[in-house]
């Protein structure tokens, strides 16, 4: 894994108060230089209490190399920390979504997007300089309505570099095989791009806790193809999130392999609908 993101780590997992003012000003100036009045693509960042990650994400985006006119906007899911303040300090137009869930936040970004294409990303993730251009290149191909790419994890003292490589390689293979017949299962919100107009037709589900990105991909399939980009220049880097939910990396690997083997027969058949799990439904107040 390359080290294009190394300098961004100096502000990753750190409170905004510790951020060098020079970095904030640099990000502000570079983002201002990227913003277009007539964007082809909208990049919207969603964040809920992402004070320790958002600046690193914005710093990576500020150094974007993209031939397409673009806009960068933010969605603050009514955070309790300084997330909104970071958007302000970096000169990023943002919207406050008071209903809490990834679905509501992603929908807010979609509703305010002016670009033909929408790349809705996560604030705890960093993106390589050619990420947006590579995703839009794929979306420009005939018949493609959505694009999903891959991501790596930041190596640290608790996770072996080689263990991460094995985990990611195995996961990548599974996602690639799955993408032929069931691309909706290979889609993750942190690395997903799609046609704005078609997503507005289908909408984004707000009644589920997770999986709104995959369900959007499922709905978009009626209009065309969901492409899968494996190029390294479209590979994001993020923290550990749900990988740590099963304990150690090895245990997480075992759990995911077992789940993958149980459903291996389904890799080769298309599916038009999925049944909601009760535990994944947002509880109505």
From TrEMBL:
Keywords: Cell membrane, Glycosyltransferase, Membrane, Transferase. Its main location: membrane. It comes from the Bacteria. InterPro entries: Glyco_trans_2-like, Nucleotide-diphossugar_trans. CDD domains: Glyco_tranf_GTA_type (cd00761). It is found in: Cell membrane. Gene3D superfamilies: Spore Coat Polysaccharide Biosynthesis Protein SpsA, Chain A. One of its GO terms (molecular function) is glycosyltransferase activity. Transmembrane segments: none annotated. Residues 48-174 form the Glycosyltransferase 2-like domain. One of its GO terms (cellular component) is plasma membrane. PANTHER family: GLYCOSYLTRANSFERASE (PTHR43646), GLYCOSYLTRANSFERASE 2-LIKE DOMAIN-CONTAINING PROTEIN (PTHR43646:SF2). This is Glycosyltransferase. It comes from Bacteroides finegoldii.
